[in-house]
Amino acid sequence: MYKLYHVFRHHYSATLQRRMKLPQNRFFFLFLLSALLLPGLSQAAGKNLKVVASIAPLADFAREVGGDKVDVTLLLPPGASPHTYEPTPRTMQEIARARIFLKIGAGLEFWADKLVAAAARSLLTVDCSKGAPLIRSQHSHEGENVDPHYWLDPLTAIGMVRKIEAAFSGLDPADAPYYRKRASAYIAELNALDLQIAETVKTFRVKEYVTFHPAWNYFSRRYGLTVAGVIEEGPGKEPTARHIDRILAELRRLKIGVVFAETQFSPKIAEAIAQEAGGRVLMLDPIGGTKGRETYVKMMRYNLSLMRKAMG
Length: 312
Ligand SMILES: [Zn+2]
Hints:
By secondary structure, the protein is α/β, with parallel strands linked by helices.
């Protein structure tokens, strides 16, 4: 991978050198001048903003705000977990080509730090965790002591959408009204989603649940639910026999007969626990981007329907 990076850098600097000579061309110089005098001209000329997003919800927000003025590339393949992801040469190329990198932050994209450092200085990194109402985490998540799963609260997602709108408008001010209009329309959808979840959760018979990994604290805080137990307390951390006993005791107390696993992880341990408890496993999805859960709103409705099956 290191070698590939050098090949890429070499190619890039050759292109750059060619570009440096171009201002000798009078027409190019005039074009450059007009581009400087008329902000956003290069966008109007059909050059879309190149955006890379780490996980599917961010890519979805970017498409909702950017419409046909941006080209969005998702870095994490659907079904992968950001906690265990290993970047590929393609990840590196996409970051190197991009103008904007959208990330969750709070340590979730630990695998992207080096790639971003190696990318061109013109790359704008938008860390959506800045200013978000973060929850402290007892479990070290990639060395950070905050819980990075804040996108699972739709009202916090609204802040993310606004941040993305500001980034797009900053780099492409000519299209700012377009981004503002699309962001507002999408925020209305997120508000409707929030209302639907709040109304549904209100009817739940049980308000506690057991999850596979600690992804649901923000969702729970927003809607008055409690995470009674987490099977895997840290990424890749196998639960001890004592911890499994505690989970089983919680399941008996709650009498819900459902253990939640997640589509990005193997359901094996959750299945064993469910069998022991005489219950079943349902697969929550905190990332989405797969069939039926292509968008954030669809993914959240999918999770809500499963929670209703377990706790409703
Ligand atoms: Zn997670």
